[in-house]
Amino acid sequence: NLLSVAYKQVVAARRIARRAIAMTEQEMPESAHAISQYRGKVEAEIDALCDEIIGLLDSHLIGQASTDDNKVFYMKMKGDYYRYRAEFKRDVSQAGSASQANRAYRAALEQAQVLPPANSGRLGLALNYSVFFNEVLGNASEAIALARKTIDEASADLANHDEAMQNDSIQI
């Protein structure tokens, strides 16, 4: 989990910087070339970090996960990092990253079926997959459908669990 937190923080800082740079680029067309070059450097950093963590997930973490919870968590991470790439890639590269993210999220969702519907990892996966549908694919109806289905299943299952799990689930 510490590895996940570390990568998330490092990549999140660059994603925020990239968004700010992109806004500045639009606001200052006279400096667009220089700003675009800097944006490219930040995007290259995001790309390299995503490559690195996806490589670790594929080579070690997913295959060696000791529990279904861990496996789903790592598979979701893989989808997340492909999604982060898809946020800034263009054309064929964007389509490739989006396709890889979709594949990773779908595989994680299949694996998550062994977990209780109110499991926080399963809920977090559905939330992130919904964000992917909406923000990357522009498919709000699919995002809403997945979120509704997940909430309905979790609501029906919530009473079957202790208070700690209920609190974890409700927070998501």
UniProtKB/TrEMBL annotation:
Biological source species: Spumella elongata
Domain 14-3-3 as annotated: residue spans: 1-172
Family recorded in the similarity comment: Belongs to the 14-3-3 family.
Entry superkingdom: Eukaryota
Coiled coil ranges: none
Annotated protein name in UniProt: 14-3-3 domain-containing protein
PANTHER family: 14-3-3 PROTEIN
